[in-house]
Amino acid sequence: MQRYGQTIAVTVEDLTRSDDGKAIMSMNNYRNLVRRKQVNILRPGKGLGSCALIEYSSLPERFRRRFESKYGDPEVLLSRDKSALVINAEARRFFAGLEPGTFRLPNGETLPDDKVEEYTLNASVLDALHEEVEKQRLGRNRLKNSTRIVWENILASAERLRADFHHTLPNNEARLKDKVRTYEREGFICLVSKKFCNANKTKITPEGGRLLVALRRSRVPVYTLRQIFDEYNRRAERKGWKTLESMNSVTSYLERPDVAPKWWAAVYGELSARQKFDRKQQTILPGVRDALWYGDGTKLNLYYKGRDKDGKPVKKTVMVYEVIDAYSEMMLGYCIGERENAELQRRAFRMAIETAGHKPFEIVTDNQGGQKTTDSLSFMSRICRISRTTEPHRPQAKTIESIFGRFQREVLHGDWRFTGQNITATSRDSRPNLEFVEANADDLYTFEELCAAYAEYRQRWNDLRHPESKMSRREMYLRSQNPEAPALSQYDYMEMFWRVTERPSEFTSSGIAIQVEGQRYSYEVLDAEGHPDMEFRRSNTTRKFFVRYDPDDMTRVWLCTKPTVGGLRMVVPAVPYAVVHRAIQEQTPEEQAFLRKTLEANKQERVRRQMEGYELEIAHGVAPEQHGLRTPRLQGLSRRAQEQLLDRYARDMTSESGISDETCEPIAIGQVGKQISNMTFDKVSLLNKL
User: Which pairs with CB-CB distance under 8 Å and at least 24 residues apart come from 394-399?
Assistant: First the structure.
């Protein structure tokens, strides 16, 4: 029976011996208690002269009663003449090595736990012995004599403490005296054994270690580990160093945590070293929808049948660009194409925004697919508040990559046309059965069937349960609300997705024409009745406009101007230029009515221009008739048709001038004269029919 630290401990012999009376328990009882972990073993009985120590308080109550009836109360027995010892908490902190300024081994490691306890106990005992030495010194100084320190008494105290606490200080007077004085001079560090990280037996010196690292980094030539071992020994003999006896010495040294970073990049590449040694960030995914979207392109992992350049049937694959909400993992938008480019990205994000109906707060993409172009950067800045790219060569930074992997495993893997996952995947289930695919090549999807099947698989993924929720991804997305992502209006869609021509185009008699992606489009302005707007043409023919258009819907555009002050101003909407059949046989009644209406409008415009010009000539005295000449009549119009148009123009103008459309002839001669006297020359000129 003894104290183990501050705990009362008993030995196996205390419990099972029967030479001093009936045993507390049998050896079988003890083994069963240990096997069932019903007692706490403070120290296993390993090593020569070391016996197992069992915590007394962990014994079952019936055995504690037997022990106390045989030996007495352990607390009372151990308290008799027991030396007092205060454990030095500062020593424990120093030897634990967990705080700055505390002890660490030369290789940066901490002391083993048992050594921390041993050195802390030794320091505490040395504190007690130092106190006794100081007491003797104070007594000697008080008596003013030169009596020497009685080290026999100090040694006796040390031995008493050894019996009670089992410290490991020297049991020899001279050595104990030397240890106490060294402790007074150097402090805690003198208690650490010099055997730790003893460099006397080390064959690889710091200079030799630098040589090993250099050989491992060498690219010309490239050494194997065996060749590094041989080359090191060859140079060591020449330099007078110790040679290495085993190649394990080379391997162990180069794989040390403090050595591996020095050569890893040279052997496996800097990106590999970055992945292995750089600190990884741990982040929390968004808590609401539309806070963060990921966009990335990947191979669509389904084969479809196609033909090569020689016309032979082959199995093919395409690319798909996906946009995914990071909160719900819902696939919002996608676009399928031969290669990942800016147009594929634009179409996928447009579908995502139209599906969401909200503007996302942040979008994260990679640096591929033409995303560095000015147009692409401008597009990304319009569709979200923050647009950024992931750090290159950091797959951990792309959550969408893991979503792609699970989509492939959980959904696409069920289709026998599955191409398999990434070639770096190691699972057998991630590989396709190419023999089966080749045997059924005729049943592969066509491209149109592939697009339809992929759309269905996306819907299936969105309807599956989210791994962190009991709801489906779709329900999780639709139930969430993000106050920082407001709903979009029609004007917002126009600002996001519509483009503006780089240069203005002229509005001519044939409308206005622009060219988008190599295709020519012509537009004109219509009035409220759907006919060509002659009033707009009258004022804007030959004027130049910028055209704002939707690249996905070219059936409606806006004509805009860019004044010197201010930004783009939208003037009027325009629609595709009306085209009719030339052959009467093929013309529809609507086309014929449209032709009659526009031809009549053109004739009226000719008369209007002619009359407005003639009025101006009359007003300024430059009309041909005012100089004895004639104004040519309009070509292509009969005299009767021209007179009818002039009548109509006159009626329009008199209506605008306030002249009544009703022609009331006065009866009396005096009234006729009065009417003539009230007429002005401008009204007379309107009635002049050339």
Answer: 396/280, 398/294, 398/296, 398/364, 398/366, 399/285, 399/294, 399/326
Phi, psi for 334 (deg, rounded to 5): -155, 165
> Same domain, yes or no, for 100 and 120?
yes
Distances (CA, A) of 128 to 27, 88, 154: 40, 10, 10
Residues 333 and 438 in one domain: yes
**Domain CATH number, residue 24:** 1.10.10
Do the domain assignments include residue 403? yes
Provide the residue count of the chain.
690
Domain limit, last residue, from 148, 166, 191 = 191
Residues 509 and 638 in one domain: no
- 304: enclosing H helix or E strand: strand 304-307
Of 422, 418, 444, 445, nearest in space to 432 by CA: 418
Is residue 501's pLDDT more than 90?
A: yes
Give how far the C-alpha of residue 557 lies from the chain's centroid of Cα atoms, to the nearest Å.
Answer: 37
Residue 420 token pair:
């398999």
Copy the structure tokens of residue 341.
Answer: 């480019």
Give the span between the Cα atoms of 227 and 39, in whole angstroms.
55
Burial label, 303 (beta-carbon count in 10 A; 0-12, 13-18, 19+): buried
Shared domain for 445 and 350, answered yes or no, is yes
CA distance 418 to 401: 18
Nearest one of 660, 645, 657, 652 to 690, comparing CA atoms: 645
pLDDT in tens, 21-80: 788 999 898 889 988 888 998 888 766 556 788 888 899 989 988 888 887 888 777 765
CB atoms within 10 A of CB 179: 19
Rounded to whole angstroms, the Cα distance separating 135 from 150 reads 11
Q: What is the pLDDT of residue 49?
A: 55
397 with 325, same domain?
yes
User: What DSSP state is assigned to residue 169?
Assistant: S
The residue among 530, 555, 579 that closes a domain is 579
Which tokens is 626 given? Answer: 């005012």
Give the residue-averaged pLDDT of 654-673: 53
Q: Which residue has the tokens 């010196």?
A: 205
Mark whether 464 and 374 lie in a shared domain. yes
Structural tokens at position 574: 């325009």
Structure tokens at 304: 């479809």
Distance in angstroms (rounded) separating the CA atoms of residues 524 and 532: 7
Q: Tell me how far apart the alpha carbons of residues 106 and 109 are, in angstroms, rounded to a whole number.
A: 7
Are 312 and 452 members of one domain? yes
Pull the structure tokens for residue 418: 């599955």
Cα separation, 411 vs 109, in Å, equals 49
Can you give the CATH number for the domain in which 443 is found?
A: 3.30.420.10
489 part of a folded domain: no
Please list the alpha-helical segments (H only) found in 522-680.
534-540, 589-620, 639-657, 669-678
**Cα-flanking dihedrals φ and ψ of residue 144, to 5°?**
55, 50
Tokens 């634990």 correspond to 96
Total count of domains within the chain: 6
Alpha-carbon separation of residue 250 from 211, 235, 668 (angstroms): 11, 14, 134
Q: Model confidence at 689, in pLDDT bands (50, 70, 90)?
A: very low
Range of the domain at 269: 202-277
282 falls within a domain: no
Burial class of residue 228 in the structure, from the number of CB atoms within 10 Å of its CB (0-12 exposed, 13-18 middle, 19+ buried): buried
Q: How far apart are CA 551 and CA 553, in angstroms?
A: 6
Residue 540 in domain: yes
Q: Do residue 59 and residue 36 come from a single domain?
A: yes
Question: Apex CA 649: angle with CA 647 and CA 653, to 5°?
Answer: 115
- Which residues, including other chains, have CB under 8 Å from residue 464's CB and lie 6 or more apart? 410, 411, 472, 473
